[in-house]
Specification:
Oligomer: single chain
CATH topology of one domain: Aspartate Aminotransferase, domain 2
CATH superfamily of one domain: Type I PLP-dependent aspartate aminotransferase-like (Major domain)
Main location: cytoplasm
Strand content: 15-25%
Shape: globular
Mean pLDDT: 95
Strand order of the largest sheet: 4-14-13-12-9-5-6
Keywords: Aminotransferase, Biotin biosynthesis, Cytoplasm, Pyridoxal phosphate, S-adenosyl-L-methionine, Transferase
Subcellular location: Cytoplasm
CATH class of one domain: Alpha Beta
Catalytic activity: (8S)-8-amino-7-oxononanoate + S-adenosyl-L-methionine = S-adenosyl-4-methylsulfanyl-2-oxobutanoate + (7R,8S)-7,8-diammoniononanoate
Largest sheet: 7 strands, mixed
Number of strands: 18
Pathway: Cofactor biosynthesis; biotin biosynthesis; 7,8-diaminononanoate from 8-amino-7-oxononanoate (SAM route): step 1/1
Low-confidence stretches: none
Length: 444
């Protein structure tokens, strides 16, 4: 705990009933006030005035991969603010946008060569779905307007993105008539990390692939694209699945003229131990979405990338343009800090950082497997998951974790962590011991 740091409790009181927080009622549990942040640490204060200095096990929802107040990112932001903070992107361009686009194309799977900047991950998915439909119409397939997605998937909360989220947990029923009806495959077979490889039951994979092939064959005249989070379904349950399923989707999409749309918003830029999770399956998508870690957690920015073939078909159509254009598209501040963030990935040994995270989380979370309330413990790259048999008591577990030096934000039956890449062995040990203690205390 910190001492000598005070924040008027009225700040939290002023928040409650005024501000909506994600998936929370206006009169929900009181939030914690942020006093400061640096490196892997958050300085928080509770409504009762208690102060906490904790390791951020969440990277601020998986985005602050370099930690807080990083000198290189701070400098990039300040330098760009000294030149200009924003200009419209219609009819204009600027160096941060061009440099960032060049870097993204260089880093992306070979063949992905064009970039559209969006305000957020959800918006990048909206744009990607538009691109798929525009492509099919331009190619003469005007009936191909639906999407084949995965049970357990999550792609954002805006309407089109929501339509390709899990049909049960994706809030479809709350917006009748507004969420477009899509087709869904079963959740892909579970995978386990064994000797550096993701392995699944071959029979389960074969059965899933058969369903994929039959569904696409039956509905090929109405489908525009197959949509999936490669290898790791994030907010849909932190589900690791067989890379063979992504590979099969690539093959079937190509065979029937569909596009493969991979959502790398959560998995991109190293989080799974590969630069992009598609590398686990050795595939190149037609369309790819990135976000979250793109700016190192500093500003909201995402991007839709597509192949030369997709771009050429749309450019050759009567419309020629991609039909989207946000006011803050390619915001110079966001692009400048994103360039700095990607340069850090290049200059620092991120592969070594992720190997350290995977080793450290595996050891730190292992004791949780012995707890009777724990169903499963799994780790991939910088992702660690403790899955319970029952839903998590979020407020109670959050408080106990704080008392053990960890900021966590569990959901459903999952107590998980995606720490900053700069986390030390001591940080990871603290995360593991804190989460294990919280689970044992609250759900014991």
């Amino acid at each position: 705990m910190l001492s000598g740091v005070a924040l008027a409790p009225s700040l939290i009181e002023r928040d409650r009933g005024l501000l909506w927080h994600p998936y929370a009622p206006l009169d929900g549990p009181a939030p914690y006030a942020v006093l400061g942040a640096a490196g892997t640490r958050l300085h928080l204060q509770a409504a009762d005035g208690r102060n906490f200095e904790v390791v951020d096990a969440m990277s601020s929802w998986w985005s602050a991969i370099h930690g807080y107040r990083h000198a290189a990112l701070d400098a990039a932001l300040q330098a760009q603010a000294g030149a200009f903070s924003h200009v419209m992107f219609g009819g204009l361009t600027h160096a941060p946008a061009v440099e960032l686009a060049e870097m993204l194309v260089e880093m992306a799977p070979a063949g992905v060569e064009h970039v559209f900047f969006a305000d957020s991950g959800s918006v990048s998915v909206e744009v990607a779905l538009k691109v798929a439909v525009q492509y099919q119409r331009a190619a003469g397939h005007r009936r191909r307007t639906r999407f084949l997605a995965l049970a357990g998937g999550y792609h954002g909360d805006t309407f089109a993105a929501m339509s390709v989220c899990d049909p049960v947990d994706g809030m479809h029923s709350e917006f009748p008539g507004l969420v477009a009806p899509q087709l869904f495959l079963p959740r892909p077979p579970r995978a386990h990390l064994v000797g550096g490889e993701l392995r699944s039951d071959p029979l389960e994979v074969a059965a899933w692939v058969a369903i994929l092939e039959d569904t696409v064959r039956t509905h090929r005249d109405e489908l525009a694209a197959v949509v999936m989070e490669p290898v790791l379904q994030g907010a849909g349950g932190m589900h690791l699945y067989a890379p063979e399923c992504v590979h099969a989707a690539r093959h079937v999409a190509s065979e029937y003229g569909l596009l493969l749309l991979l959502d790398e918003i959560a998995t991109g830029f190293g989080r799974t131990g590969k630069l992009f999770a598609s590398e686990w399956a050795d595939v190149t998508p037609d369309i790819m979405c990135v976000g979250k870690a793109l700016t190192g957690g500093y500003l909201t920015l995402a991007a839709m990338l597509c192949s030369r073939r997709v771009a050429a078909v749309i450019t050759g159509s009567p419309l020629r343009a991609l039909l989207h254009g946000p006011t803050f598209m390619a915001n110079p501040l966001a692009c400048a800090v994103a360039v700095a963030s990607l340069k850090l990935l290049r200059s620092e040994p991120w592969q070594g950082q992720l190997a350290t995270l995977q080793t450290g989380l595996t050891a730190a979370l292992a004791p949780a497997a012995a707890l009777p309330q724990v169903r499963d413990v799994r780790v991939l790259g910088g992702v660690g998951v403790i899955q319970l048999h029952t839903p998590v008591d979020v407020p109670a577990l959050t408080l106990v974790a704080l008392e053990h030096g960890v900021w966590a934000r569990p959901f459903r039956d999952l107590v998980y962590t995606m720490p900053p890449y700069i986390s030390t062995a001591a940080d990871l040990a603290t995360i593991g011991s804190g989460l294990c203690a919280a689970v044992a205390t609250v759900h014991g």
